[in-house]
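Good day; I would like, with your permission, to put a structural problem before you. What I wish to show you is a protein chain and, alongside it, a tokenised description of its three-dimensional fold. Thank you for your consideration; the sequence and its tokens are set out here:
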Amino acid sequence: MPDRDIVEAFAKRLENGDFVGAIEQFYMPDAATYENNAAPTVGRDKLADKERGVLAAFKQVTAVRLGSSLIDGDIVASRWKFSFTNAEGVTRTLEEVAWQTWRGNEIIEERFFYDPKQLGR
């Protein structure tokens, strides 16, 4: 079970915009993430590279956690609002729930649940 202070430190890294740093610090080397029902991305290095690609595609990306993270044993659930601003200055927002499985103080699996239609608005 992760320490609440560790979960809070992870969330703070995201809210401060250090998405790649959060992956490098808090994910296990063999961690996997799932976007809705898509095939997983496996491996911390691949996750960090994928995140770098997302960040490169936008002028700005911000994250705000909506409420507290819920911790139950090895499971952590958090509700997030992400804003993506493109080169033309158009901002799209996405609300999602991140469902994480932790081993001690590191993430081994994370599933993101969201409606992809949000980005088209």
Notes: Strands lie at 27-35, 41-42, 60-65, 70-72, 75-85, 91-103, 106-113. The chain has three helices and seven strands. The first strand starts at residue 27 and ends at 35. The chain has one domain: 4-115.
